[in-house]
Amino acid sequence: MAKKDNRLATELVEEQPKKKSGGFLKFFTWIVLPIMFVVAVLLVVATLMNTNVFDLGKKAIGNLPFMPSEEQQAKDAVVNNDSKIVSLQAEIQEKEAEITQLQKN
Predict the structure, then answer these.
(1) CB within 8 A of 70, min separation 6: which ones?
(2) Mind listing the pLDDT tens digit for each residue in 12-70?
(3) Are 46 and 53 in contact (CB under 8 A)?
(4) How far is CA 86 from CA 25, 26, 59, 91, 92, in A?
(5) How far is it, in rounded angstroms, from Cα 57 to Cα 67?
(6) First CA to last CA distance, the chain
(7) Is the distance from CB of 36 to CB of 44 less than 8 angstroms?
(8) What is the pTM of this model?
(9) Quick one: 11 exposed, middle or buried, by C-beta within 10 A (0-12, 13-18, 19+)?
(10) pLDDT reported for residue 50
(11) 53 and 43 Cβ atoms separated by less than 8 Å
């Protein structure tokens, strides 16, 4: 009887399929976690050196050639607002003309 139980136990152990770790788990374990650790260490070092990383990032983004500067963004906003004002004034004149025409009738 002991041989039967032992044989059944070994068959059960042999029949269980081995679980394969997924690609996402390997990617997360070998790439994402080390990168997060390095970033955390760099942020701690920057804090200890009294360096504001976010200001440095803003300056770096401002120096990119394909990113518009704040001055250019302000000019674009003024031009956009001017065009809106002109279109709204034209709409007002149209409505006033319509009002006067309706009053005559």
Answers:
(1) 62
(2) 555 555 666 688 888 888 999 999 999 999 999 999 999 999 899 888 887 777 777 77
(3) yes
(4) 58, 59, 36, 9, 10
(5) 13
(6) 111
(7) no
(8) 0.43
(9) exposed
(10) 93
(11) yes
